[in-house]
Amino acid sequence: MAIRKNGIVVLGAVFVDIKGFPEDIYIPDGRNAGTVEYVHGGVSRNVVEDIANLELRPTFLGIVDDSALGEDVIHKLKNHKVNTEYMQTIPNGMGTWLAVFDHNGDVAGSISQRPNLLPIMDTLEEKGDEIFAEADSVVIEVDMDKDIVKKVVQLCEKYDRKLYGVVSNMSIAMERRDLLQKFDCFICNQQEAGMFFSDDYSEKGQEELQEILADCLKNGNIPSMVVTMGGKGSVYADCEGLRGFCPPKNVSVKDTTGAGDSFCAGVASGLTYGKTLPEAVEIGTRLAASVITSSENVCPRFLPAEFGLEM
């Protein structure tokens, strides 16, 4: 399958992730010796770099600061073969995520500051037709400004492009519920799924969650959805009755940051380039496993053929 000029188009925010790791057992109310790392982050930024690491040449519609750090973000994306020609550089264009991890590699606490993404609307108004006409599919953070999400839905319908949704803030994403009927697949975690359907899924096993998800999608007329369950794997379903479970990979965990983003990248890549939903979820699971074994936010380099993608 040939890749169009813009490949998979990804829209969303760029963050600077400040991550602290303890040397020993993490004590929440004490002083913890350890290391602090600064990493390029943001759900969509991670997703687009993960897709690029599959040698799939994606395009990113995002914003960076007019600073050396912003230049570094664009430089790194270009080195990974991401098309950055539609990115903007403005003051305070990036967000910040501050997180402390415990000795198991899980987030013990975090604070984030979101950037203003409305300038992306200007890009869509001016060059949206040019971008989407040469796109293979589109991935967007559902919690972006509603006008941006509406515009993306309109452009996907106009050019018959598949649309995939990922979330960084479910409280905001719930306000876009009516638009999710236009998405081909929505990806979130177990807690977020409970928020989305106004229920508590934290104690649900994979079989029960599959059944609940299939019913919710049918009743809500949402095409398909994948729900990650952390170290327990993931479940998936569509509104036509398909449902299933994908077990996790058994790997040593250092840092779970970015695992959900790489999972999304794998699912979107698989669905874009001819894989079924179960096959795409397997690709996402493999990518997520490759991320959690290091402190990096993204997966290492792979070739498309390693996942059965014949480009």
UniProtKB/TrEMBL annotation:
Keyword Glycoprotein: no
Domain of life: Bacteria
Kinase among keywords: yes
Gene3D superfamilies to which the protein is assigned, alphabetical: 3.40.1190.20
PROSITE patterns: PFKB_KINASES_2 (PS00584)
UniProt keyword annotations, A-Z: Kinase, Transferase
Domain named Carbohydrate kinase PfkB: residues: 7-295
SUPFAM superfamilies in the record: Ribokinase-like
GO molecular function: kinase activity
PANTHER family assigned: RIBOKINASE (PTHR10584:SF166), SUGAR KINASE (PTHR10584)
Protein name as it appears in the record: PfkB family carbohydrate kinase
Lineage: Bacteria, Bacillati, Bacillota, Clostridia, Lachnospirales
